[in-house]
Amino acid sequence: MASSRPDPPIRADDPVELAALGPEVAEAPELGAELLARYRLHRPLRGVVVTDLLDPRPAFWRSVAPIPPTEAERTRLREGREVHEWLGRRLAPVAAREVRVRRDGIVGRIDILDGRPLELKSTSSVPPATEDPRTSRPAYVEQLAMYGALVDQRDGRLVVVGVPGDDPPKARVWDIAIRDLEPVRREMRERAERIRAARDSGRSEGLPRCEWYDRGCPFQRENVCDCTGDEPELVDVVLDEVERVSPDPVAADAIAQLLREARSAPPEVGRFKELAYPRRAYFDGVDPDADAESEGVGRPGPPDDTWGAVQAVLEDGPAGEYELRHDPRGEPTEAIPTFRGAPVLVKSSRSLRPVPAPRLLAERPHYVLELALRCASLQTPTGWLVLGLERIPSDGDWIRVQQVRFGSETAVTELFERRKAALAHARKVQDPAALPACPTWMVERCPHRARCGCASASAAGRM
Predict the structure, then answer these.
(1) Any idea where the domains of the chain sit in the sequence?
(2) What are phi and psi of 86, to 5 degrees?
(3) What does the pLDDT look like over 58-67, one tens digit per residue?
(4) 389 by DSSP, 3-state: which?
(5) How many other C-beta atoms lie within 10 A of the C-beta of residue 50?
(6) Cis peptide, bond prior to residue 300, ω within 30 of zero
(7) 105-153, pLDDT tens digit by residue?
């Protein structure tokens, strides 16, 4: 007998629907105190991502004066993400994809880490197989070498594929060997420290010349940067340690064959926010190039803010304490951060008084929703909410931890499956009417507001 399902809630984070999950929220002051003590004893370096190290000067300007991408740039980014996710699922098991690593305050997100790191790139201009990527694509090779340095692997693989629409599909594969990892790590630390110093001072002095100066740099185009073109060039320490680059045409042909099959791939759920806010996900798919402002759903802030500080404290603990895991079924493809075996949701807030445990469901239902979906994905009843309070001084109690336990694992699983099935059906019939509306706090900044219907649904829910 099919189980009866409730009518779709008015809002995606409807507290009545979430209450059926049986959430029990408890303060975890001992863990909060432990994390604060860890921070004060050995304050973690503010995270700098590997991609910032490849060209530090534009990385600085991205953090202080970001420029929205053009329509063409958004299209390329979206196509690149689609290739990454689709091909990654076919090249490696779920636990080996999008692996986040942190070392010496440097953070990398490795496309595939299955013994050795693999970096996947998509481009509109695939280089010839005989070309040395150290010359034609130096940033690709540097990035792979840096990932190797983060995980103590001297060997890596670089995969370069054409953008969707290439006929026939093109792919190139090179295996790369690094001579000595320590000079690479030393150069990474030096570049990261320069970026931190520039961000602290708000000045780009001391950063090397931008690779894209007079070559279409958006910051130069928009008169944002103060670059002159006379800055010292970035040294080639990392590339100098790459001792061998070997093409693998057999592997390249196999990947090209996979790309030929991509056209028939059904749409899949990539991120948890698609299930948390399915109506927004539907319209993002219909109009992916909308000029959307970030409303902060599931997105970390810049690497040097409160969110990043909490993340650093969690990641800098003993090996294995903080891990990224994946749904064993492979969907969503997004990695799930876990702390001591349970999903962990990191948030930051400007409030001086965090919401107490008994009021979390009523006042922050989206926290409960986002954590419930991750618990359902890993089939565990318990998760952590770790909150960083932006306005509390660093010597105060600025980290608060709550434990959320869901009393009905069946209801949590049904919520997960119900959201996934409803989104798939809406995409199939091209009608989002049955999908729950986005929360009120998301509506005002949504680029789809004029046609999505969330504003009227939210207003009805307040009557």
Answers:
(1) 15-46+270-462, 48-264
(2) -65, -50
(3) 999 998 888 8
(4) strand
(5) 22
(6) no
(7) 899 999 999 899 999 999 888 988 888 999 999 999 999 999 999 999 9
Q: Terminus-to-terminus CA distance in the chain, angstroms?
A: 36
The answer to whether domain 15-46+270-462 and domain 48-264 are alike in fold is: yes
Rounded to 5 degrees, φ, ψ at 340 are: 55, 40
Whether residue 22 contacts residue 411, with contact meaning beta carbons closer than 8 Å, is answered with yes
* 362-366-368 Cα angle (round to 5): 75
CB 406 within 8 A of CB 413: no
For residues 440 and 454, the answer to whether their CB atoms sit within 8 Å is no
CA dihedral 52, 57, 62, 67 (to 10 degrees): -130
**Residue whose structure tokens are 């080639």:** 236
* Contact yes or no for 147/99 (Cβ under 8 A): no
| CATH of region 48-264 | 3.90.320
Cα–Cα distance for residue pair 5/418, rounded to 1 Å = 9
- Which residues on adjacent β-strands are paired with residue 209? none
Overall fold of domain 15-46+270-462: Lambda Exonuclease; Chain A (3.90.320)
